[in-house]
Specification:
Number of strands: 0
Mean pLDDT: 70
Radius of gyration: 19 Å
Order of helices and strands: HHHHHHHHHHHH
Oligomer: single chain
Strand content: under 5%
Length: 233
């Protein structure tokens, strides 16, 4: 799936896909991959009295905590949301089946390697990895570096990402109906600008400009809410 904007280095690349994923999550919160992983965590929780061969329910909760980052990481690699969700679920199986006797010192780094390997397996199985691995090794390094940089920032405030997601969801709920429709068509249905324009009776370029304004409005709204929550004038 193509993303808007130009790539100018590791951080913009990852941030661009992270923003696209965040916008997508805003429209499909609590469905699909999220719901299945939440069910896995619930099944493996001894407080629920359920029997399961899953080794450590804490691991799946950690994976859910970092899900937005991993999905952005995957989308930067495969540029396809359905593929990214499939790969993430495959990685979740590996995480769930981890031997608890083997300690994990850095879950994020360990899980990133699991996700990365699952992505490369996926690409190989579909015959798309040769181009990625042979002609774009620098791209993989950039994606890895950007992911690690994002993780370093997250360590300073573990709850920041969740507050951002909550603020984004609230801000999105206040968008006018036509803007919500454009966001849904672009990030949930993954329609092209021209296709959205045909539906709404506008040109593709007009839709692209409108979505750009909507993203800026959402960004400003989220930053304002975060600033108020922190008591910043």
């Amino acid at each position: 799936m193509p993303f808007d904007g130009a790539c100018r280095g590791p951080a913009p690349l990852f941030a661009r896909d992270a923003h696209a994923y965040g916008t997508y999550r805003m429209t499909r919160a609590g469905t699909g991959c999220d719901a299945r992983l939440q069910a896995c965590a619930s099944m493996s929780d001894p407080r629920n009295g359920a029997q399961s061969d899953m080794n450590d329910p804490g691991l799946i909760r950690l994976l859910l905590r970092h899900q937005a980052d991993f999905m952005a990481y995957l989308m930067a690699m495969v540029h396809d949301l359905d593929a990214a969700e499939e790969i993430f679920q495959n990685a979740a199986v590996v995480v769930i089946q981890h031997d608890v006797a083997e300690p994990i010192r850095d879950f994020r780094a360990w899980a990133k390697e699991v996700v990365r390997r699952q992505a490369l397996h996926y690409l190989r199985d579909r015959g798309r990895s040769a181009r990625l691995l042979v002609t774009e090794p620098e791209l993989l390094e950039q994606i890895d570096s950007a992911f690690d940089e994002a993780g370093a920032l997250d360590e300073g405030d573990a709850g920041l990402r969740q507050r951002e997601i909550d603020a984004l969801r609230e801000c999105a709920g206040r968008l006018p109906e036509d803007q919500r429709a454009m966001v849904s068509m672009r990030y949930e249905r993954r329609e092209s600008f021209d296709a959205i324009g045909a539906t709404l009776g506008r040109t593709g370029q007009a839709i692209q400009r409108a979505l750009s304004r909507t993203r800026r409005a959402l960004h400003d709204c989220v930053q304002s809410k975060l600033a108020r929550a922190e008591g910043t004038p």
